[in-house]
Amino acid sequence: MENKIKLITFLDAVGRTILGVHNESLSNETDLAVNNPVVLHVVPQDQSGRMSVQLLPIFFREFLADKSSDVTYIYKNASITKTNIEALDFRLKSQYDQLFNKSNLFVPPTTQPENQQSGSSQAIVNLFDE
Questions:
Q1: Which residues contact 32 (CB under 8 A, 6 or more apart)?
Q2: Strand partners, 33
Q3: What is the pTM of this model?
Q4: Could you tell me the CATH number of the domain that includes residue 106?
Q5: Considering the chain, what is the average pLDDT of its residues?
Q6: What would the pLDDT profile of 33-62 be if each residue is shown by its tens digit?
Q7: Residue (of 125, 92, 114) closest to 8 by Cα position
Q8: Which residue from 56, 97, 99, 124 has the fewest beta carbons nearer than 10 Å?
């Protein structure tokens, strides 16, 4: 089954490469709406000149009440630089798809752990010396 999502790429106002899904229904002449935008972050791996690519979400879905919902950002067309890139390498698309695959979401339990339900107290652990 082939994924039909088409990613768009552009440079934002501070020069970061942004990837995301174009939201045509919210875009207009002055605004570009992008669902689930990520920053393309390239990091040198070692002295050989090899590099690794990381996709970092602009906003992590883990902070949302509904973890399966999309995050949409509106960018002003006047402050971005658009590209003519029409197709991306399958590895980049795969990494993006895995990042936003709704079946991979961690859903925290809605009930408290058993030891907290019974009213038992636990020792408080201080992480820093005060």
A1: 10, 22, 74, 75, 76, 77, 80, 82
A2: 74
A3: 0.73
A4: 2.30.30.100
A5: 84
A6: 999 999 999 988 888 888 999 999 999 988
A7: 92
A8: 124
